[in-house]
Backbone:
């Protein structure tokens, strides 16, 4: 089992290659990134996200440090994606770089460790899920649900996935559904608003999502729509497990929520909607009271 | 529009009727119009009729509802149902989502009848804007069909 989303950004000799996630599932194409401004454009235009933005930041620090410090690169990334904690990634890098270890070695070591850590996280979560796991999810967690499925099967459990389509970008349909389906993993896609009916009708028995930010208390910030799932899951007594990393002792309410251009609300629709007022906050805040247990990634 | 520009708003779910628009206009507030997947009720029906009636509207994707309630932007929800009886009512896809999220945030829900004749809104999660996003030839079994939703105890 495999997915190009497991590592959507790659370091090459001269530059960076970024999987254009906006073209999936119709095309698997990589964008050649040769400068920091190009990396920031890729980020701003949502060509990559989630793990991709982490890798893009790390690799930009390897390739495009002429005239930039790690902190200044982090600042520029934050300006383009304010909800994500690039300053924390900068700290991780700076802490490990030393006279005997280059930034490239640090980054490569991090990527290897990250993959092993998410496998361990998937195994840990698999042990918590029911024997017949019917998992509702939203957006995309870069192939980790494939790992989760493998771990569930290894543990002698059954699993099927329901994926919220995740408007407006349809990451649920175009990425999560697609990567599970091409690996022959049982999966169905739903409209985002079908989640309540699905829970009431007992078609799902757990919710698993990603998390862009996490607090030590257990709260998370994740793709818009996640809060609704968490509230409804609590009402229907269904466990809600966000996959988190690097929880920090912060007040979740103080994190700026990125609001995207209103035209993106109409993504993938044809027509002139310029006369309509619209809004698109891209993330939800989920307080710790709604989280059954954060499934924390532990790097070794 | 930015989220902070919305101070106090109404939410509509299901296709608005003429009587419903009159009722909404009485309230005199900004109306949040969700997309209404899969049939795009918000885009194809509600935005057009509400704007034509001079109602101030703002459009969003369905999954923004939770944040709107969390931020206390919505003070009343109007749900347009297909049928109603003594036990409850039946509405378009997502009606339970809108009603439960309202109720769980202590927001009043007012139920009104859909227009007659009932408009046609079909589709499923695998198709958007006429384009298929599931590449398999056979979509059946890969998409949870978007059916009407019955609401009883949640009212």
Residues:
């Amino acid at each position: 089992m495999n997915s190009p989303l497991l590592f959507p950004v790659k370091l090459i000799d001269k530059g960076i290659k970024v999987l254009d996630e906006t073209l999936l599932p119709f095309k698997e194409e990589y964008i050649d990134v040769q400068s920091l401004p190009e990396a920031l454009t890729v980020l701003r235009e949502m060509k990559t996200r989630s793990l991709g933005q982490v890798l893009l930041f790390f690799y930009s620090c390897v390739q495009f440090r002429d005239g930039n410090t790690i902190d200044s690169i982090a600042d520029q990334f934050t300006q383009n994606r304010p909800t994500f904690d690039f300053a924390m990634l900068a700290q991780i890098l700076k802490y490990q770089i030393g006279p005997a270890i280059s930034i490239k070695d640090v980054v490569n070591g991090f990527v290897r460790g990250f993959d092993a850590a998410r496998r361990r996280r998937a195994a840990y979560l698999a042990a918590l899920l029911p024997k017949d796991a019917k998992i509702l999810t939203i957006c995309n967690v870069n192939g980790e649900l494939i790992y989760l499925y493998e771990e569930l099967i290894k543990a002698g459990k059954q699993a099927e996935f329901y994926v919220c389509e995740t408007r407006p970008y349809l990451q649920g349909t175009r990425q999560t559904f697609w990567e599970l389906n091409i690996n022959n993993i049982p999966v169905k896609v739903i409209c985002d608003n079908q989640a309540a009916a699905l829970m009431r009708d007992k078609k799902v028995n757990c919710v698993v999502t990603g998390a862009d930010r996490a607090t030590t208390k257990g709260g998370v910030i994740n793709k818009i729509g996640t809060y609704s799932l968490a509230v409804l899951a609590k009402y229907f007594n269904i466990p809600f497990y966000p996959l988190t990393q690097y929880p920090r002792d912060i007040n979740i309410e103080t994190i700026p929520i990125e609001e995207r251009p209103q035209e993106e609300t109409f993504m993938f629709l044809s027509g002139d909607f310029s006369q309509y007022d619209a809004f698109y906050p891209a993330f939800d805040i989920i307080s710790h009271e709604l989280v059954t247990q954060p499934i924390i990634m532990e790097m070794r | 529009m930015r989220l902070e520009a919305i101070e106090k708003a109404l939410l509509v779910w299901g296709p608005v009727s003429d009587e419903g628009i009159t009722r909404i206009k009485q309230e005199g507030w900004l109306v949040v119009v969700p997309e209404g997947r899969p049939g795009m009720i918000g885009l194809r029906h509600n935005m057009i009729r509400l704007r034509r009636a001079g109602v101030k509207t703002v459009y969003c994707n369905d999954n923004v509802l939770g944040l709107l309630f969390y931020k206390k932007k919505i003070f009343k929800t109007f749900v347009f149902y297909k049928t109603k009886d003594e036990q409850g009512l039946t509405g378009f896809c997502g009606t339970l989502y809108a009603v439960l999220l309202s109720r769980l945030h202590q927001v009043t829900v007012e139920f009104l009848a859909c227009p007659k004749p009932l408009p046609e809104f079909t589709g499923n999660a695998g198709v958007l804007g006429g384009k298929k996003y599931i590449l398999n030839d056979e979509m059946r079994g890969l998409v949870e069909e978007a059916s009407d939703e019955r609401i009883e105890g949640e009212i």
Observations:
- Chain B has a mean pLDDT of 94.
- Chain B touches chain A through 50 residues (CB under 8 Å).
